[in-house]
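Aggregate trends can hide what the representation actually does to any particular protein. The sequence in question and its structure tokens are set out directly beneath this paragraph.
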Amino acid sequence: MHKIVSLTLCLAVFAIACNDNNQTAVEGSNIAADNSPDTSGSSVENRSPNTSYKPAFPGQTRIGRVATKTPYEAVVITSDLKNPWGIAVLPDGRFLITQKGGTMCIVTAEGKVSEPITGLPPVNYRGQGGLLGLTLDPAFANNKMVYWVFSENVENGNLTSVAKGKLSADEKKIENATVIYRATPAHNSNLHYGGRILFDRSGNLIVSTGERSDKETRPQAQSLNSGLGKLVRITTDGKPASGNPFAGQNNARPEIYSYGHRNVQGLAWHPETGDLWENEYGPQGGDEINLIRPAKNYGWPTISYGEEYSGGKIGDGITQKEGLEQPVYYWDPVVSPSGMTFYNADLIPEWKNNLFVAALNKPHLIRLVIENNKVTGEERFLEQENQRFRDVAVGKNGALYAVTDAGRMYRIGKK
């Protein structure tokens, strides 16, 4: 027997069905959907903004809504994960997943969860810390090497660290785990570690770090002599990668790729242009989507579209300044964006090259249509699930797979 409950979301008709294997299906028929920006200018956001700041250009925030036309469904394939944080797609279609407390696990496309994979360095999993993002070596099929980010306790506090190790033949442990990079200086805080990691086309690693949140550390996002609030580009041994923009400059760390970031938890390569995109948390308001260029300054905390949690201004309360990059898109109030990916499969053609963002606040999955480096439409999925979405990836079968803080993993694909 299937218990069906009807509800409405994003101009679509949905149903929740409990299957015999305890999976939950949320079906989207989208019979009234229109896959173009709403000509009335209606946004998916109906909450009042926290600030009175105005966007720098049309379409920088609260863009018109879009809705997927293709019938799709979202299925909870497992609820047995333990605070999952990052997803890496294995060559055979399974998923290697980090769990915040300090272990990894493997999940099949059908939702079977392995025993915890151990052998990793200890993590500080208090607050926003723990075992964070991960990525696979481009030659993983042959060398089984995994790279990950975690929050590490050190003598003077804690910091964002990067490690590598080999997945054992029996897939039960990480062998020869080695810390290859630490984003210094350390600070005694449990906030803003960043934590995403990707390989670039040259075989180097792009890693995001946070500025650790506190007012005393915020200015380090603007300092080229600090590892906080940065995107860094390093080799697989943790050394500064060749060709980095600040190499050879006095008072500048050679690993820095871009700076002026607050807390980057989303990184993704555009499948056609090859451009690097990121998202980062604003304070109260001002979450951002940015197109990353080497050596560029993305403004935090000098400019922001948000405000202090107390309601006061950030710094001088300005949103623009010469020499500082504007976000391609921002949200006010916040959505708390975490992992993200560009859709590069053919299962649902209308999603091609769209950016999907896992959101923690007013929890949902976001779809952004991007044309010529501008956001032209926004859609929100699965708000009724009331799950904090932490990461999203495209599976080998063309479906999206998303994990939530509560331990669920969803498959979102063609119905």
In short: Residues 247 and 254 are 4 Å apart (CA to CA). The chain has one helix and 26 strands. The chain has a mean pLDDT of 92.
